[in-house]
UniProtKB/TrEMBL annotation:
Protein name: DNA 3'-5' helicase
Enzyme class: isomerase
The keyword Repeat appears for this protein: no
Listed GO MF terms: 3'-5' DNA helicase activity; ATP binding; ATP hydrolysis activity; DNA binding
Domain UvrD-like helicase ATP-binding: 6-283
EC number(s) given by UniProt: 5.6.2.4
Catalytic activity, as annotated: ATP + H2O = ADP + phosphate + H(+); Couples ATP hydrolysis with the unwinding of duplex DNA by translocating in the 3'-5' direction
Domain of life: Bacteria
Alphabetical list of InterPro entries matching this protein: DExx_box_DNA_helicase_dom_sf, DNA_helicase_UvrD-like_C, DNA_helicase_UvrD/REP, P-loop_NTPase, UvrD-like_ATP-bd
Length: 762
DNA sequence: TAGTGCGGTGTTTTT
DNA sequence: CACCGCACTA
């Protein structure tokens, strides 16, 4: 116990040892949030206030859940079994598996990932002859997910116009189709669990009584449904220990509601509000920069981070003429950091959007600097793996039409659009799944479809007693996937990934405690599977506190859930000492010795789309706050005068965020570029070739426009709109007009003979 | 039915 | 620039 609590600062200690009451912990970046969470769990258990089975700890990512588990087992001798630590979705999956009948789901229900969901919606639009220009699949998906995230079923959504009435109607059709196929999307996992518990009082009371302590990580990221889910789990008396940071709320665009923090404080009459403001990560100048920037936001709960670490180095600001040059500069700085003894994996390059990574990657590649890009495609999302998974899904649940369509003609078996049309008609006519409709299709189409069904059934028969990894192998062979990729010229990697799927299954089976010879598929007596883990209390069936996964799911079902809920690592060579490239979003929760934040330009960061949205710029500012607070010792921020985006050069102004950072903490680097740029006024052509690369049309344009006194890319000042950059010039002489990007004031088309513009020296 | 080429489009992302 | 969906041809 001494060990457990020593080294905590007074606020951390206070948080860890709070009584069993609702508590809100405002945990600033780098303030030891995870430490507080895990130490509290350990403390609660070690002081005998709660048994492991009384703990429910919820996170957003699998990584965070794993991290918590790891730290806990390092902290405590006892095993972590019986504790429910997981993501919202993982925990809901477990509950729904245990109570699948009450939740009106088939025992082998499957989880759609976003890709699957989108393709299902596209299919649905087609089947119902909906104009997908008017109702784009993506919009419908946002609509459905948005509604579900608010806890609303189709009939709960109020539609005030025809457009929305149609959307609601499609939402209803979508849900029916999911139910027919026995599939649930991510939001459905939560909504279904929420409905299950809210309708079933005994069940709800059971879990409320069991979970004496509910701990929530990243509370600022909860959406309304998640918050309501928590309230349902906690009941009115629940000891909810919510940890979050309103300044790091960067997921409003996907339904996160920071307002849940103050709602929680109000609704639960939280008396225990603790702020963790001592930062153990960053040096003073970095922290000052973050604090000063975020102070520009109006809607804050209020918090100011401080450090004992001393000022450290100033934040280095760099202006480049082009994105290429920005990348080149990153490489030079990286090299000197390494030369000074830095480690590549302790250096991160952050950007606002993924499109920015290409230029940087290219430069790093040419320079021979190892790097790792986060957020790329992950293992279970790769096409070949998804195909293999779809075969497995189909074998576990023959009514999964999405899985059926994905693989029915892959590898190609002569089943084309015509055949599938017939099949879909039959399925619609009888209200059955595609698989079940196969016997109703006659002729040539019928026989090739029949052969497919035979293949699936053969594989099912062959693997009915086999453990999971062997079943996967059977599927890979029987489906012809392996052969297909072996014959493909560039298929070697894909074959390797398919083989890795077998290894992944082996690892999964042993990690989750399934017997090595446990059959992957549900046997004929499968209905009893849930037996041993379910206890009947006063006529209510509830899941045993420490029921392991095998008690509620077959190995195959569990593996398929795992594939949907944990997309796996992205391929990049982990472990190797490589530079870390990622979006600012994916950097949340991480820290590095040195950080580059790139592309600090109006329109990019803050992103142009954020201007239109209510509170959008504040969210961008929080995003920048997150980015800054990733850095421990050294921080670089860069922006570029020109940038290639979507195949054309854009001229942006530097980000407004520069005006919101403390001048004394910034060090403006004066690179060679600046001199070149000044030089360029005398020799515009040379500068433009430099910036854009020879041969660009823009160079010619830039030069021919010199005669009217202005050129593309030049900075100007306007009395009303402030500073701007000339993006394009049309016409010539007295009738010339210029498109000028005034950043936050937007793009304006001004008549050059009328508008009063001043030159702004570079 | 299967493979090629054109045009439209384009934040951020975890589950 | 790169990806996707669609239309067209063998």
């Amino acid at each position: 116990m001494q060990n457990l609590l020593h080294n905590l600062n007074p606020e951390q200690l206070a948080a860890v040892t709070l009584p069993a009451q609702p508590a809100l912990i405002l945990a600033g970046a780098g303030s030891g949030k995870t430490r507080v969470l895990t130490t509290r769990i350990a403390w609660l258990i070690q002081t005998g206030q709660v048994s492991p089975g009384g703990i429910l700890a919820v996170t957003f990512t699998n990584k965070a859940a794993k991290e918590m588990m790891t730290r806990l087992s390092a902290m405590m001798p006892i095993n972590t079994r019986g504790m429910w630590i997981g993501t919202f979705h993982g925990l809901c999956n477990r509950l729904l598996r245990a109570h699948y009948r009450d939740a009106a789901l088939p025992q082998t229900f499957q989880i759609l990932d976003s890709q699957d969901q989108l393709s299902m919606i596209k299919r649905l639009l087609k089947a119902n002859n909906i104009d997908d220009e008017k109702y784009p699949a993506r919009n419908l998906m946002y609509f459905i997910n948005g509604a579900k995230d608010q806890g609303l079923r189709a009939h709960d959504v109020e539609a005030f116009d025809d457009y929305n009435r149609k959307m609601v109607e499609l939402y209803e059709i979508y849900d029916q189709q999911c139910q027919r196929e026995g599939v649930v999307d991510f939001a459905e996992l939560l909504l279904r669990t929420y409905e299950l518990l809210s309708r079933n009082q005994p069940l709800r009371e059971h879990y409320q009584a069991r979970f004496k302590h509910i701990l929530v990580d990243e509370f600022q990221d909860t959406n309304n449904l998640q918050y309501n889910w928590l309230k349902l789990m906690a009941g009115t008396q629940g000891a909810v220990f919510a940890v979050g940071d309103d300044d790091q709320s960067i997921y409003a665009f996907r339904g996160a509601n920071v307002g849940n923090m103050s709602a929680f404080e109000r609704e639960y009459k939280v008396e225990n509000l603790i702020k963790l403001e001592q930062n153990y990560r960053s040096h003073g100048h970095i922290l000052d920069t973050a604090n000063t920037l975020i102070a520009n936001n109006t809607k804050r709960l209020g918090k100011n981070l401080h450090t004992d670490a001393g000022h450290g180095e100033q934040v280095r600001i760099y202006e480049s003429t082009s994105d290429l040059q920005e990348a080149q500069w990153i490489i030079e700085e990286t090299k000197s950091l390494i030369a000074e003894g830095g480690t590549r994996s302790e250096i991160a390059v952050l950007y606002r959007s993924n499109a920015q990574s290409r230029v940087i990657e290219h430069a790093l590649f040419s320079a021979g600097i190892p790097y790792r890009v986060y957020g790329g495609q992950r293992f279970f999302e790769r096409a070949e793996v998804k195909h293999a998974i779809a075969y497995l899904q189909l074998m576990d649940n023959l009514h999964n039409d999405s899985a059926f369509l994905r693989v029915v003609n892959f590898p190609t078996r002569g089943i084309g659009a015509r055949s599938l049309e017939q099949l879909q008609d039959a399925a619609k006519q009888y209200g059955i799944s595609l698989y079940a409709a196969v016997p109703y299709v006659a002729g040539k189409a019928g026989s090739s479809l029949g052969a497919f069904v035979k293949m699936i059934e053969g594989a099912r028969f062959e693997s009915q007693h086999l453990p999971l990894p062997e079943m996967v192998q059977v599927v890979l062979d029987a489906s012809g996937l392996i052969t297909h990729y072996q014959n493909e010229r560039e298929g070697a990697d894909r074959v390797e990934n398919l083989e890795q799927l077998v290894s992944a299954a082996t690892l999964f089976v042993s990690e989750e405690g399934f017997g090595h010879d446990a059959p992957a598929l549900l046997g004929p007596k499968s209905e009893q599977m849930v037996g041993p883990a379910i206890t009947t209390l006063d006529g209510v069936e509830v899941l045993d506190a420490d029921a392991p996964l095998p008690a509620v799911m077959s190995p195959l079902s569990a593996f398929l859930s795992h594939a949907s809920l944990e997309a796996g690592d992205n391929q990049a060579q982990a472990g190797q000492d490589a530079l870390q490239l990622m979006t600012v979003h994916s950097a949340k929760g991480l820290e590095f010795d040195a950080v580059f934040i790139t592309g600090l330009e109006e329109g990019l960061f803050p992103h142009e789309n954020s201007q239109k949205e209510e509170g959008g710029v504040e969210e961008e500012r929080r995003l920048m706050y997150v980015a800054i607070t990733r850095a421990k010792r050294r921080l670089y921020i860069s922006f570029s005068q020109t940038r290639m985006l979507h195949g054309q050069t854009r001229y942006n102004m530097k980000s407004r965020f520069f005006d919101e950072m403390p001048e004394e903490s910034l060090k403006w680097l004066s690179p060679k570029v600046q001199q070149q740029q000044h030089h360029s006024y005398a020799h515009p052509k040379a500068a433009w070739e430099d910036a854009l690369g020879a041969g660009s049309n823009k160079i010619a344009q830039a030069i021919t426009k010199v005669d009217i006194g202005w050129r593309i890319g030049e900075s100007v000042a306007h009395a009303k709109f402030g500073e701007g950059v000339i993006v394009n010039i049309e016409g010539s002489g007295g009738s010339a007009r210029a498109h000028i990007n005034f950043g936050r004031h937007g793009m304006k088309l001004l008549d050059l003979s009328i508008a009063k513009l001043d030159k702004v020296p570079g």
